[in-house]
Amino acid sequence: MKRMRREILAGSAVAVLLLTAGCGLSDNKSSAKGGSVQPVGDSKALDAYGSGSGSGSLPGYGSDTGAAPAGGAAAAGKGGAAGELKVREAADLGSVVTDAEGFTLYRFDKDTAKPPKSNCEGDCAKAWPAVSADDTSAGAGIQAGLLGSVTRADGTKQLTLGGWPVYRYAKDTKAGDTLGEGVGGTWHALGPDGKPSTASKGAGGAGMNMGTGSGMDMGSGAAAQPQVSLSVRQNAQLGPILSDAQGRTLYRFDKDSAWPMKFGCLDACLDTWKPAPAIDKTKVNGIAAELVGSVKRPDGSEQLTIDCWPVYTFTGDKEPGDINGQNKQGLWFAVTDKGKKAKAAG
User: Fold this and answer.
1) Cα separation, 248 vs 204, whole angstroms
2) Which of 49, 87, 134, 142 is the most exposed place for a label (fewest CB within 10 A)?
3) Coiled-coil stretches, from where to where (predicted)?
4) 24-63: per-residue pLDDT in tens?
5) pTM flag (> 0.90)
């Protein structure tokens, strides 16, 4: 009996070691731009997070691929014409374009404007209904000459603004919602000039395109790849902490888990804490590359991990270098250059 117990304990220890090492092994063997850790946990929990059965998910779209929620933009038939476009001021976003009913309109960083082309098809288009070019006009604050159309794969005409295809978001259930902002790091509320709405909020964000791997759009329509996607900066209170290419502080969540890798930030949590998109681990500065990895979220998008912990940005951080998310609810912490939780200097 004692021998059997020792064998069971030994087997459990090996399993734990393999699982613990799995994140690092997967990251080290993966290429700089590909490969990620698959989170573990029972499938029922993952289904509840919006992953469905695991089929039909589209990596990078950062959206649920199932049916739109009741009352949402898609459920309400919001894939049609927008009517007269309007401009409204949204908190933290600046000037945002809406349709005639006040629903926020969005753009996708993986589309192109020159020439206009939509890369959101199939399941992606269920979560992000294309806005029809028919019966759409420019209201106050929008130049009529910026409106156009692009022919989608199904032959329909989609509205474009400044060359960018225009969408609604299925989870926006009422006028004024901006739940699609920052989803997957690639979806953004649309500004009246066709740029992301955050780009028009002043010099600090002028022309900034927050898309995954897309660099910074300085208004010329051409993207310039940033040299460093992840870096370390010295904070007077917290010491050396990590920030993304736009200078935003990166945080980890105590209700997530690294071993085994599970997600505690889901659904409404993601309206406040945005998963940091995966990066090319060769473009980091001040942190060991082996600490940098990625994990596939239940919605199919790839999230950056540091020392196997998923990391996020905080919508309450208004300027590069802000640390307003530090110790929020006693659960959220900036990440150090060693991949640990940051603590205020004594």
Assistant:
1) 12
2) 134
3) none
4) 443 333 334 444 555 544 323 333 222 222 333 333 333 3
5) no
